[in-house]
Amino acid sequence: MTELQQHLKEHFGFDQFRDGQKAAISRLMDNKSVLAIFPTGGGKSLCYQLPALLLDGLTVVISPLIALMKDQLDFLISKGAPAARLDSTLTKEENRKLFDDLYTGKLKLLYISPERLGNERFIHAISKQKIALLAIDEAHCISEWGHNFRPDYLKIAQLVKQLNVERVLALTATATPAVAKDVRAAFDIAAEDEVHTGFYRPNLELNVLSTQAKDRNALLLEQMRSRPPGATIIYVTLQRTAEDVADYLTQNGQEATAYHAGLKPDDRTAIQDQFMKSPQAVIVATIAFGMGVDKADIRYVYHYNLPKGLESYSQEIGRAGRDGKPSVCEMLVSTEDSITLENFSYGDTPEEKVVDAFTRHILDLGEQFDISEYELSNRFDLRPLVVKTLLTYLELEGYLLSTGPFYSEYKFQPNRSSAEILARLNSEEAAFLKNIFRNAKKGKIWFTLDTLKVSETIDQPRDKIVRALSELEEKGEMTLKVAGVRQGYRRLRIPEAIGPFTKTLNDRFQNREDNDIQRIQQVLNLAKQKSCITRYLLNYFGEERDDCGHCNRCLGIPPTPPDDALPPSLGSGDRTAIQKLIAERYSSIETPRQLTRFLCGINSPATTRARLRKETNLFGAYDSIPFKTVLKTVQEIINP
């Protein structure tokens, strides 16, 4: 038994490593950064859990999944590992104990969300620690051309340098060769330190069946009745579809429960808990379900609607059969679904004039400035992700440098009198704090500070004020609450010609839109495959393999060509209804693209703020019609 195997047995009770785990861990122990590409359920978490217990220093795990954090934490604590998670669900006492353990060095492994990196108090606290390893789950989110780009993830690469992190472990289950290259470049990971175990799962039977939308319920019911009962996830695109399909199945003897983001948190938790306990539960869910759900005996995964890309499809079918037993993954393909998916992609693309106005506004704010992403979202009627992406583009092009996020408002509740707090300090520190306290507004329970105004009033750096308050909280002298997150920037330069520059930004958004549409087409191409479905999927991820022998193509079931009938168009009655809506002159839908988003069922900050859905029944009235068709009609009405 090797030394690593001995540690594996001692700490976790396992006799052997799973495929790829030892290779990744060995490189980390040799002080190398690693990219680990394992299939869903392939054992990625052990690759940082074991090193965390062996390395000198703290391991920080960045994961977007609170459910995953909780499950892993329960497992680690059961093994006696000094681990914790930092999230908004912690009580004040739990939060204080966590930071006590962090400062005293008791903590070896800390789970956080990516958003935590936007908390300056946390960065202040973590910067005092020796970080032996930073593990990034869902690392594909850092790639602009990945299927789930998150601008916040680009900040992680900067943080690695800022915090002097010794080594990085990037983890993903869905990375094409191009995305893997992006991740390696971001974290300076050598090509030879990429550990890729392959995506092939021999126990998964992949089937693709083409159908018309009107026949899909009956086909799903028929397929479910033809198979033994077992834990089942049925993926749909829209919340109302989840409710409708669950009702249909239940009425026809297949008890099913809907799960989506529109349910109350307590209801979602209860549904998920029941699913985890039952060997035969059926969930009809949007993609809000499944992330972080580690249930080994899921026998069936159906895609009632098309997934938004082969990356999403791979991730979702990866939840089946983690116990190694045969499981069926079946996609019911209707080309009508592509319209809904494409509409969401088109709806996220900002208008050219808005990108131009946004860019000019940002670059006119001066050499040193701060902004609220929430305020920008409302001002320019851009979804928050688009605002983050635009700011990220300006950084990547070298026009802005982020000086970090901060909170404009601090609230504090002293745990003892100010006289007692000041008595413990030297005269200089006491005078400084007295000046801060003098500028705080007293409420019934909390004192409130606008840190920017106080900084100007007492002529002291804002960072010094925040540091003093944070240290008082660390000592137990007060309790802090923060609000009004703002992002600081330094303007590095201005484009020589703003017009051509904003055109390049618009081109970038157009390229992202084209990529999203192409991903949807790749799913349709999968449905049309006459040969092995598994091999086609693996080739997409850069893996060469022979026919699997057990998908429905390999079993001799030929593809039925998807129904490529022309989508419905807008008639004279529709034009009249849209004209009446335009005549109402709602400011939140005054541009053709704003109005088209609304008609296709895509919310925006302006329509949400105006509560426009209560004013008219046309929201989403044309979500089954291609976005570009609706946009063209709207443009013809506005500009005849």
Q: Would you give an account of this structure?
A:
This protein starts with a helix and ends with a helix. Helix 5 links the parallel strand 3 and strand 4. Helix 14 packs across helix 21 (498-528) and helix 15 (373-380) packs across helix 16. It contains 26 helices and 18 strands. The chain is α/β, with parallel strands linked by helices and 640 residues long. Helix content is 45%, strand content 16%.
Throw out a few tags for this protein:
single chain, 640 residues, seven-stranded parallel β-sheet, six-stranded parallel β-sheet, alpha/beta, 26 helices, 45% helix, 18 strands
Task: Please describe the topology of this protein.
Layout: H1 3-12, H2 21-29, E1 34-37, H3 46-54, E2 58-62, H4 66-78, E3 83-85, H5 92-103, E4 109-112, H6 120-126, E5 131-136, H7 151-162, E6 168-172, H8 177-186, E7 194-196, E8 204-210, H9 216-225, E9 231-235, H10 239-251, E10 257-259, H11 265-277, E11 282-285, E12 298-303, H12 310-317, E13 327-333, H13 336-347, H14 352-363, E14 368-371, H15 373-380, H16 384-396, E15 400-414, H17 418-423, H18 427-438, E16 441-442, E17 447-450, H19 451-458, H20 462-474, E18 478-491, H21 498-528, H22 533-540, H23 572-583, H24 592-599, H25 605-609, H26 627-638
Parallel strand pairs: 1-6, 1-7, 2-4, 2-5, 3-4, 5-6, 8-13, 9-11, 9-12, 10-11, 12-13
Antiparallel strand pairs: 14-18, 15-17, 15-18, 16-17
Helix pairs in contact: 2-3, 13-21, 14-21, 15-16, 23-26, 24-26
